[in-house]
Amino acid sequence: MVPKIDKIIGISAYCTKGIGAGGTIRVSDDQFFVSEVLRKTALEKISDSGGYAVYKLKKSGIDTNHALADLLKRHGIRLKALGLKDANATTEQFVCDMSTSNRHEDIKTNRYSIQRIGFLKKPLTKKDMVGNHFRIKIEGADFTRVSAFDGYNSVLNFYGYQRFGSRRPVSHLVGRSIVKRDFEQAVGALLSETSEYDLPENNMIREELKDRAKYAKVLPQVPPRMDLERLVLKEMVEHGSPLRALHSIPISLRRFFVEAYQSYIFNRTVSMAYEMGEDLTRPQANDVCYDRDDSLGRYQNDPEQRLAVPLVGYSYSKKNRFEYQIAKVLEEEQTTAKDFFIKEMQEVSSEGGFRQSIIKCSEFAAEEPYLSFTLSRGSYATIMLREIMKPDDPVAAGF
Fold it and tell me: How far from chain centre, in Å, is Cα 54?
């Protein structure tokens, strides 16, 4: 049986058999290390002068969005990341300047640093990233089970806990309300939705915020760590418009909420398809697939092709193997694909897309108490670890 929090984020099954190894991760940030892997062709294009500056961002105890926001605020440098890395880890990733006029040297703080590694004629894109390499310490695990795990090439490519908020998995709830144009409910979910996994002091504040009449009174009590809530709450106190309050959130985070809802629908779709006996490890005739270069196309009986499952958006086409499962989930959600075109907030509208069904894993190696592996772009180490450890309480286990 899967833990309660798994069901909250749309995951209702394990895809590997056997008893989990147990254990705990992230006892400290330096025990969970992740570094981005760029394509060789992208690395070869980096030169010593001209164009857009490329930096290596190293951080710990802060997520990518907050690190980049701090760089913009303190140094006026606007950088774009290829992927988001959360706060509870030590991470290295590539970020690219979006202007050719900046020539910043290295910057270092107590939580992050950037080191310029060169220049590119065009900014990096997500397609320039192959994936991420992980080195993770697992404390208190049965490491014989970790070492014996051989299902790493058949793990379903679910979106992980971080996508939804980990201790407080509500990002998809905010996104759901935005998609349904219930902007007041979106603000309510962001400000006052409590979680049994969250800190008691946070839940106390959120309980107060369930009463809109108390917004002005509670605002001074909201701690700095709840910066997004403070931003939205301030707008609500001053103007009272939920739509205006949501527009005060940086566009990248507003898009993140909508994408989190897409991720929830994807997790439910894949869970349902797996439980109905669909073979998600191999593409079939007429399936959409990724090839070795991560390009999308129809099934060509190529062993290197990987099955792609639709991500629902306003351009979603029903002609696919997962039409039944997606229709069932959308019906239960009382949502349609067209709802993802949001007239009142067009900048967060999403046409949808595809995501590979199975995690592509390489360099899997266990050397007690560390486990290391490389995952394809967009896949979550916590989803791989979930299958290996099968924790009773993922939050308590550090997920």
Answer: 23
